[in-house]
Amino acid sequence: MSSKKIVRAAGLAVAFAMSTNASVWAAELGVKITSFVAAGSRTRAAELCGKVTGLGGANPTAVVRVVVDEKTSKPGVYNVLVGSDGSFCTTVVSYAGTAVASVWDQSAETSSEQAVRTNHRSASR
Question: Running DSSP on this structure, what letter comes out for residue 56?
Fold first, then answer.
């Protein structure tokens, strides 16, 4: 094999390794629920807000998956697109008052292991 072919083959192998191990090169994404507050005393609606960490570079945006009432027979699933500042809020309907959030790492094509469970509390207005 000529030296040009060897160099090209080595370059392709490195490029393939970098693309398959993108999570090594990108910051680890994480998610934290910062508030989960009922919209009122006679409603199941609640506002859920949070923060995604590790955005930037390879991850300018993220998708957060929120599952409310995950241990019931009818959990609700919400997907929220998060911008570069990492902050998000969404309105959800919850009967059990629980929520779990996970973030999809687009560069690694996997879901973050950092999920948060929280119970909502009544709004104090």
Answer: B
Sign of the torsion angle spanned by Cα atoms 100, 33, 22, 109: positive
Q: Judge whether 11 lies within some domain.
A: no
Q: Domain containing 56: what range? A: 27-119
**Inter-CA distances, 7 with 1, 15, 64, 86, Å:** 10, 12, 41, 41
Alpha helix (H) ranges present in 1-125? 3-20, 22-25
User: Digits of tens for pLDDT over the chain (125 positions)?
Assistant: 555 544 444 443 434 333 444 444 456 888 999 999 888 888 999 999 999 998 888 778 899 999 999 889 999 999 999 999 999 999 999 998 889 999 886 665 545 433 444 556 544 43
CA distance 28 to 56: 10
3 found inside a domain: no
Residue 4 in domain: no
CA distances from 10 to 3, 4, 7, 101 (A): 11, 10, 5, 41
